[in-house]
Amino acid sequence: MTATNSRPIGVAVLGMGNVGAEVVRILTEGADDLRQRIGAPLELRGVAVRDAKRARGVDPELLTDDPAALVAHDDVDLVVELIGGIEPPRTLILQALESGKSVVTANKALMAAHAGELSEAAERNRVDLYFEAAVAGAIPVIRPLTQSLSGDRVTRVTGIVNGTTNYILSEMDATGADYADVLAEAGRLGYAEADPTADVEGYDAAAKAAILASIAFHSRVTAEDVYREGITAITAADLDAAKKFDCTIKLLSICERFDDDGVEKISARVYPALIPLDHPLATVNGAFNAVTVESENAGRLMFYGQGAGGAPTAAAVMGDLVMAARNRVVGGRGPLESTYASLPAAPIDRVQTRYYVSMKVADRSGVLAQVAGEFAKRSVSISAVRQDGSGENARLIVVTHRASDRAQSETVAALEKMDSVIKVSSVLRLEGTDE
Ligand code: NAP
């Protein structure tokens, strides 16, 4: 196709922060290549920011603090939303879609909460809505799921999709340092925000799990459907104990389809979990992200790379922008999200999990049998037991086989009430095993 004489495609970029500045740079520096690949030149019509008076290495004439007016320009065909948060991005994206303009966004919070409304607007107006950068930064995972695997049946998606928490857990594992010290260090190095809540409490990973589950299982899953636990309670002792079971601890976003008493359902969940050291996700360290996808015919695929940062995220945004621009040149649009399957999201207690329970116990005979009895009462079978220390420091660690999360958590509640259990110090799940 050599439609390089097609009329220019006007682009509005909303937001010129970490990601937006890199998108503007690539748009400018790569203009010639982009024109060849698209078949028409991309022309930057304007950049919306909060403070349009601040110099930013872009023609000041292009800057505006009125994103709605920029979106409304007749010569804007494509809108790239890189402001972040729910409003004003939601209203601006709807405005663009309703006026027949395709949209590219990196906004996970928005897509996790409002994908339905936005996709319907894109569908109604027969335009594209792309969001590759919303999950795992530079790593192509949305397009493999929506396109490359669209002829297969995805059964499970497991990801390390939050770089901040992966950095913290990797550092705790490598150095033996405590959570608070590593979090402070992550802040100094720019890996953690001043308010790290969205990362360390798992909200960011849950938003991404909702997006992944929606597209993997052709169903509508929002962040509210995702079970979530963060990493704030993980201790150096947990990582140390994990090593003794040939495991490490990672914050995982897990999306799976499963049979719940004859009804096919989806589980989307985020929690720190033990994974065996020989699992492919165990070697993903520092601020890197990775996603494994399991599907019936393709088997297991793994995607790995930089999950954040201005330039890596901008690379994913640019891929979407080129696709949307090409579609415009040929007069069509790409495949949209589909939600035909409408599988219901199941609560965590219906899911089959394995537990790792660490307890401080009284150092006297019979305790192990009593503890084992509580598991047996609820048909939770034990896979391994480890006893550490003695006297004041006696600690018992139990790892279970797969059982319903409800049976596992009820067992933990019962253990907490036992006289011989001084304290249940840590409860984690174990993932990535076949048992
Ligand atoms: P950022 O650095 O905070 O930049 C936000 C930009 O939006 C700034 O230029 C800001 O203007 C502008 N802005 C804020 N409110 C505005 C408003 N009401 N009207 C017009 N402009 C407004 O954010 P970012 O890190 O680039 O992130 C952008 C998006 O990418 C978010 O959805 C984020 O979740 C997503 N994302 C980011 C990364 C990453 O590594 N940073 C990775 C994946 C996805 P001023 O410059 O004047 O303040």
Could you walk me through the main structural features you see in this protein, from its secondary elements to its overall organization?
The protein has 435 residues and is an alpha/beta fold. The chain has three domains: 9-139 and 310-330, NAD(P)-binding Rossmann-like Domain (Rossmann fold, 3-Layer(aba) Sandwich); 142-305, Dihydrodipicolinate Reductase, domain 2 (2-Layer Sandwich); 351-430, Alpha-Beta Plaits (2-Layer Sandwich), CATH 3.30.70.260. Helices cover 36% and strands 26% of the residues. It contains 14 helices and 17 strands. Strands 7, 8, 9, 10, 11, 12, 13, 14, 15, 16 and 17 form an eleven-stranded mixed β-sheet that branches. The radius of gyration is 24 Å and the shape is elongated. The N and C termini lie far apart (52 Å). The structure holds NADP nicotinamide-adenine-dinucleotide phosphate (NAP). The site of NADP nicotinamide-adenine-dinucleotide phosphate has 23 residues, from helix 1.
List the helices and strands and how they pair.
Layout: E1 9-14, H1 18-29, H2 31-38, E2 42-48, E3 63-64, H3 67-72, E4 78-81, H4 89-98, E5 102-105, H5 108-125, E6 129-130, H6 142-148, E7 154-160, H7 163-175, H8 179-188, H9 197-200, H10 203-216, E8 227-228, H11 236-244, E9 247-260, E10 263-276, E11 288-295, E12 299-306, H12 310-330, E13 352-361, H13 367-377, E14 382-388, E15 395-400, E16 403-404, H14 405-416, E17 421-430
Parallel strand pairs: 1-2, 1-4, 2-3, 4-5, 5-6, 8-10, 10-17
Antiparallel strand pairs: 7-9, 7-11, 9-10, 11-12, 13-15, 13-16, 13-17, 14-15
Helix pairs in contact: 1-12, 4-5, 5-10, 7-8, 13-14
The protein binds NADP nicotinamide-adenine-dinucleotide phosphate (NAP).
NADP nicotinamide-adenine-dinucleotide phosphate (NAP) binds near residues 106 and 313.
